[in-house]
Amino acid sequence: MNKLFSILFLLFCSASISQTKLLSWNLENFGKSKSKTEIAFVAETVREYDIIAIQEVVAGYGGVQAVAKLVEELNRKGPKWNYVISEPTSGSPYQKERYAFIWKTTKLKKIGSAWLEKTFHLEIEREAFYCIYKYNDTQFTLVNFRAVPKPKEPERAINYFKKLADVYSTLNLIFIRDLNCRQSLTVFKPSKKIGYKSISAGQKKLLKTKVHKQQVSHLRV
Hints:
Blueprint: E1 4-17, E2 20-30, H1 36-46, E3 51-57, H2 63-75, E4 81-85, E5 98-104, E6 109-116, E7 129-135, E8 138-146, H3 155-158, H4 161-167, E9 173-178, H5 189-193, E10 206-212, E11 215-220
Helix pairs in contact: 1-2
């Protein structure tokens, strides 16, 4: 029987930061269930970018290993890549997950240690993952975050992002967020008032992939 699988509901968003190409991708349950073919497809998709922010890495066994396999596959394709993975986030057992950053070492330098932000960990389920990078003379901090599903009211966590900006007012923060809600909601107004803008406005953010006989037969971004 031919193998048939689907990777559904992947948030796929890209941006350019001072000549550095950033990709954010929710890889949905990224862990031991992902096959070699799926990992090879992801590597081929992201290889032209300089830094990748991944959401929904499995918190338990298999998540760390899947990220390592992805980086191994990327390193076989040319430039050297490195990666960092968060500890499991807080929250209920079924809500815990990890984040990851993967970057080309020839393009970017990681500054210090990455960290899960604990300031509002009681208010923000699945707290954000921070990592500081330097590109030439430009230093910036990526904030990787995936909100809880819509029935659990992700807006409650989003309310705290302006406060996080205040906590790290000396850092050049770039929020990379899988928010599970529309960006037109009033909850985003405080962030917009202090100067934050969405780079994903107008972009399609649902990527559906179906692979049959190891060939991509349907791709919509």
